[in-house]
Amino acid sequence: MNTKSTFCGSNDHRLNRRGFLGLSAAAGVSAFADMTGLDALSNSALAGELKKDQKRVIMLWLAGGSSQLETFDPKPGAPTGGPFRSIQTAVPGVHISELMPKLAARMQHTCIIRSLNTKNGDHGGAAKLMMRGRRDEAVVKYPDLGAVMAKEMGRADSKVPDYVTFYTQTEGRMAGDSGFLGSRYAPMELTTNNQPPDIRKLDGISELDHVQRADLRELMSKQFSQGRPNKVLGSHNEAYQRVRGLMASEKLFDVSQESAKTRDLYGRSQFGEQALIARRLAEAGVPFIRVARAWWDSHGQNFETHQEMVPELDHVMAALIDDLKDRGLLENTMIVTLAEFGRTPGINSSLGRDHFASAWSCSITGGGIKGGVAYGKTDANGNKVVEGEADAAKLYATIYSALGINPHKNYYLGSRPVPLVEPGTEAIKELVA
Question: What CA–CA distance (Å, rounded) separates 154 from 54?
Answer without folding.
Answer: 9
